[in-house]
Design brief:
The complex is a heterodimer.
Chain A lengths: L3 H12 L24 E6 L8 H9 L28 E5 L9 E5 L8 H5 L5 E3 L5 E3 L9 H5 L6 E2 L9 E2 L5 H5 L5 H5 L5 E5 H14 L19 E4 L18 H99 L1
Parallel strand pairs in A: 1-9
Antiparallel strand pairs in A: 1-8, 2-3, 4-5, 6-7
Chain B lengths: L14 H23 L1 H4 L10 H13 L2 H11 L9 H22 L8 H4 L7 H28 L2 H8 L2 H21 L17 H28 L5 H35 L9 H26 L3 H25 L15 H22 L16
Classes of the chains: A mainly alpha, B mainly alpha.
């Protein structure tokens, strides 16, 4: 049942449940995903970390990463801020402590293994996935190397093998998934000499964190980082100084990353379903308009032709009439003339006879 | 350019060809470097800046500026603006070449380009906006290819095949508009997942809408811009119909672009109001945002309107250039300039000269293929055997 919620959101999109672009395609459900039950988590008690880098060394060994540029015993690397890289799944950074200046704060940084990971929801080939045990794991055998997971990650964790020309991989902490499956502790947890890292069921680990805060109110800030950040993570932190003073962002919000895109995804099936209807409709209207205007044009022409024909007929008949009348008149006149002539002739001949 | 004297036995050594040849050689060398030394050998990409110029310019700008294909074919075949018919083929051609260039550039950017089909044939990551982008771009590239085939088939004299394809015109156009709506908007939606990295003035839940609406503007302006260039260099290839309709097309598209820009400006302002981001306007990024919004959205909107009113073709053409620059600016702002804005300047990204050269290389290939096609196939003129029907 891996990635049930993201799958669910995907189907939501397919069903087009949230047709409007917005942040809450999940609005039609009251389900609230709180992580897989019995999944594991790790608590990092920042107040206990002394910056010895034992975790870094153990991580390097367990994951068979290339040897570091400077040995893990060299603490001068703490002078600069570092991030995770393709050669280091975890790094410890040192920060100034404003409350007790002589005691700097050390914070371990690695993948936080979000309950609903941005990287996994962003991956278009599902190379990254959240396991029910807690770790977010990566499958290099399908990865295309698009690096969208790196764009998506709010904690800037995934790193990339930029110098690998033909088979670059995304590199990030696996929470020692293979070891967890064998019932062993993650490398860093096992190596920590100060017990600054506590591994266990997420619910138990959260309880431990709450208990420490409750029992030592002066020692801790009253906030468990990772309990709700980006919908919650499988790596939890408690600290004696405000988190933003340790390079951790406090403005990420509590919205799980998949919900940021579910609205846009849910529009897709609506466009697929309705755009053809709309466009065909517009096409049909255009065609009809053209047809109607062609018909109107034809009708107007026909009417005009009819009218002019009628007019022509009228003119013709009048002309014929007139011609007829003229002919009659002419005939009459001719008859009249002929009669006159005949009479005149007759009179002439009579006169001639009389003269004889 | 060399297209003008087709009948003289001209030398291939024109200045244009020399420059293009040089770019191709340099591009080929960098290509070898890319696939032997990896991205680290040729780019300034880093773990904090996983996407650079090849995504910001080649992908985002490439797709937006190739929108002329769907905009023009929709205008002519669906909205029935038949007087713009002669603009369809050039727009489809540049659209197809634009998308082909996008895909070509992607082969440089992704780690294992031969796995690009994996998201469709091996495992589908349907929760990813990138999956949608990939699927739609692949399908739309196919649609554009089919839409363009009549010109090639007329050139080859394959009458029956050509007539078969032209019967699909409406279907292909509708399919093309659906796909374009989806992936144009999804390119904006890619950034929805990173509200913590993109500056609030550019981040908005309306990003997909912004990208879609501005792609219409980009498509219209690119048709105007390309027709100016085509006029200049391939004017002899244009038939009377194309030349006669060109003024109509210019005025009509300018009017549409002005209106769409007005809408785009409005929804951008609404976005600021929705998220109550007014306070950011008084910052450095705010000024930069205002430069984009006023100088490259509001100004061209106004200039297009003036150009249409005065029937000032020259003004319209220059406005098209301004608008295209504005679209490029917007895409670069979202993907590079306002992205990772919280990082200290030492960790910010600026492309290497080799990244820029590959982008130039890809565009050059596009221009060369365009020249090859328009000097041979009936794109800027109608084939005498198929009058007024393509």
């Amino acid at each position: 049942m891996s990635l049930t919620r993201r799958k669910f959101l995907g189907w939501m999109g397919a069903a087009g449940a949230g047709a409007v672009i917005g942040k809450n395609a999940a609005a039609s459900t009251t389900e609230h995903f709180k992580g897989y039950p019995n999944s594991f988590a790790i608590l990092h008690d920042i107040t206990l970390c002394v910056g010895c880098r034992s975790c870094e060394a153990a991580c390097n060994k367990v994951n068979e990463l290339p040897p570091p540029d400077r040995p893990f015993t060299d603490l001068s690397v703490l002078d600069e801020k570092r991030r995770t890289t393709a050669k280091a799944y975890t790094v410890v950074n040192r920060f100034k402590n404003r409350k007790v200046p002589q005691q700097p704060v050390f914070v371990k940084k690695q993948c936080n293994h979000c309950l609903e990971p941005a990287c996994a929801s962003a991956c278009f080939v599902r190379a990254l996935r959240k396991t029910p045990e807690g770790p977010v794991v990566y499958d290099p055998s399908v990865c295309v190397g698009c690096r969208y997971c790196m764009v998506a990650c709010p904690f800037d964790i995934p790193a990339y093998e930029y110098d690998n020309a033909l088979s670059p991989k995304i590199m990030k902490c696996t929470m020692c998934y293979p070891r967890i499956l064998k019932g062993r502790l993650p490398g860093c947890v096992e190596a920590c000499p100060r017990e600054a890292l506590t591994f266990g069921k997420r619910s138990d680990v959260l309880e431990i964190a709450r208990q420490r805060i409750r029992e030592n109110p002066g020692r801790y800030v009253n906030h468990i980082y990772g309990e709700t950040e980006m919908g919650g993570t499988s790596w939890l932190y408690i600290s004696g100084v405000p988190y933003k003073e340790t390079g951790m962002r406090e403005d990420l919000g509590v919205t799980p990353a998949p919900e940021l895109t579910s609205g846009a995804l849910s529009v897709v099936p609506m466009v697929v379903g309705l755009w053809p209807v709309l466009l065909t409709g517009i096409y049909a209207i255009t065609q009809r308009k053209e047809k109607v205007s062609a018909e109107e044009k034809a009708a107007a022409v026909a009417e005009a032709v009819e009218k002019s024909e009628a007019q022509a007929c009228h003119v013709l008949s009048e002309a014929l009439d007139k011609a007829h009348k003229d002919a009659l008149k002419e005939k009459e006149a001719a008859v009249h003339q002929a009669v006159k002539k005949a009479l005149a002739e007759a009179a002439g001949s009579k006169a001639e006879e009389a003269a004889h | 350019m060399s297209g003008k004297n087709t009948f003289t036995s001209r030398s291939l050594l024109t200045p244009f060809n020399l420059v293009a040849g040089l770019i191709l050689i340099v591009g080929a060398v960098i290509t070898v470097l890319r696939f032997t030394r990896g991205l680290a050998g040729v780019t300034h990409l880093s773990n904090d800046n996983p996407w650079g110029l090849w995504i910001g310019f080649d992908l985002l700008c490439g797709v937006a500026l190739a929108a002329g294909g769907y905009v023009t074919s929709a205008a002519v075949y669906i909205f029935g603006m038949k007087r713009y018919h002669s603009a369809v083929r050039p727009a489809i051609l540049t659209g197809f070449l634009g998308y082909a260039m996008v895909v070509l550039a992607l082969n440089y950017d992704v780690g294992r380009p031969w796995r690009l089909p994996y998201p469709f044939v091996v495992q589908q990551g349907t929760t990813s906006l990138l999956f949608e982008v990939g699927a739609c771009v692949a399908l739309y590239l196919t649609v554009l290819f089919i839409e363009f085939t009549p010109a090639a088939l007329e050139w080859l004299g394959l009458k029956r095949a050509r007539n078969l394809v032209t019967r699909l015109t409406i279907l292909l156009t509708i399919f093309g508009v659906v796909l374009s709506t989806l992936h144009q908007s999804s390119l904006g939606a890619l950034y929805l997942i990173a509200p913590s990295k993109l500056h609030p003035l550019w981040y908005s839940s309306y990003l997909p809408v912004y990208f879609f609406v501005s792609s219409i503007v980009a498509g219209l302006s690119m048709v105007l811009f390309e027709s100016t260039l085509a006029h200049h260099y391939f004017g002899d290839k244009m038939d009377e119909k194309h030349l006669r309709e060109n003024t109509d097309v210019t005025l009509g598209f300018a009017k549409a672009a002005s209106l769409t820009l007005a809408g785009y400006f409005t929804i951008k302002v609404i976005g600021i109001a929705m998220d109550n981001n007014w306070r950011y306007l008084a910052t450095g990024y705010g000024l930069w945002f205002l430069v984009e919004l006023l100088g490259f959205v509001a100004l061209p909107c106004f200039l297009y309107a003036v150009g249409v009113r005065d029937k000032n073709i020259r003004l319209i053409r220059w406005t098209a250039v301004l608008t295209v620059l504005g679209i490029i600016l917007n895409r670069l702002n979202v993907s590079l300039i306002a992205f990772n804005w919280r990082l200290p300047s030492s960790e910010r990204y600026f492309p290497s000269w080799m990244e820029i050269m590959i982008s130039v290389f890809v565009v050059t290939i596009g221009i060369l293929v365009y020249r090859f096609v328009v000097t041979r196939m009936p794109v800027l003129y109608e084939h005498t055997d198929y009058p007024s029907s393509h």
